[in-house]
């Protein structure tokens, strides 16, 4: 996968940094000046840029399911009980096998 990841504000900065160190192109809400934007706008912003949306916030799953919002790939990571390194490794392993044209919702 070579499309950039868009990490919403729920993603810990060290996770975004860890993914960058592993060679993934990463955009963050902080870096894109979208901190505090409503969830709907965050998802729309990533979709308009054709970025894969990465989040810890399960509200995005509800938004997509109940409102049928479009996306260009959504990865939800349940971070409960996980250390930063584990989250980075889990995401990295998934991204290594994810096709560039995979617009699915993934639960990790």
What does this structure look like?
By secondary structure, the chain is α/β, with parallel strands linked by helices. The protein has one domain: Rossmann fold, CATH 3.40.50. 39% of the residues lie in helices and 15% in strands. It has four helices and five strands, in the order βαβαβαβαβ. A five-stranded parallel β-sheet has the order 2-1-3-4-5, with helices on both faces.
Question: What attributes characterize this protein structure?
Answer:
single chain; 108 residues; alpha/beta; five-stranded parallel sheet; 5 strands; 39% helix; DUF5615; DUF5615 family PIN-like protein
Summarize this entry quickly.
By secondary structure, this protein is an alpha/beta fold. 39% of the residues lie in helices and 15% in strands. Residues 5-83 form the DUF5615 domain.
Report the radius of gyration as a whole number of Å: 12 Å
The number of strands is 5
- The overall pLDDT, averaged over residues, is 94
Question: Helix-strand pattern, N to C?
Answer: EHEHEHEHE
- CATH names the topology as Rossmann fold
**With helices defined by DSSP (H or I, 4 residues minimum), what is the helix count?**
4
Helix share bin: 25-40%
First-residue to last-residue Cα separation: 17 Å
> What's the level 1 CATH class?
Alpha Beta
Unreliable spans are none
Main beta-sheet annotation: 5 strands, parallel
For the record, the count of structural domains works out to 1
């Amino acid at each position: 996968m070579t499309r950039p990841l868009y990490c919403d504000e729920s993603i810990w900065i060290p996770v975004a940094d860890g993914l960058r160190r592993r060679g993934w192109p990463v955009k963050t809400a902080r870096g894109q000046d979208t901190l505090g934007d409503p969830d709907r706008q965050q998802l729309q912003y990533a979709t308009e840029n054709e970025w894969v949306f990465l989040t810890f916030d399960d509200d995005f799953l509800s938004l997509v399911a109940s409102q049928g919002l479009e996306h260009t790939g959504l990865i939800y990571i349940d971070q409960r009980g996980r250390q930063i390194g584990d989250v980075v490794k889990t995401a990295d392993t998934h991204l290594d096998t994810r096709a560039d044209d995979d617009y699915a919702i993934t639960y990790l």
